[in-house]
Sequence to fold (124 residues):
Amino acid sequence: MKLLSEKFTAYEIWDPDNTRYDLQRLDQPVHTYRDEEHGLIEGGMFVFAYGTNPEILLFLEARVDPNDKSKITWQFTGGRSSGAEIHLELDGKDAWKLLRAGPAVDRPYWSSQITTKFDSDLKK
Fold:
């Protein structure tokens, strides 16, 4: 699984001026899982980060092929942890992307701002 994750690279597009930021894949999965009863042999979640900010989650899974139970196939998908436009590449070719996320709760990622007014008489 770790060797497969090394085939992926990632970047995001964000302000100012729609700048491209290359993301770094953390070497170890942050979570591993399995469910052999349902055909999931092994799964792992890897993180692509900008500095210390996780931006993209890469899920890799080895599953029993539903058409041929004697074979195992690998599959992947990405997950958003950023409001930026995000891209995953596999062997240098576009493999998955999401456009910028807005402040909407009906999307896979959303964010919002809360305006806080402090009482000037508040004592520490």
Summary: Residues 2-98 form one domain. The mean pLDDT is 87. The longest helix spans residues 2-5. The radius of gyration is 19 Å.
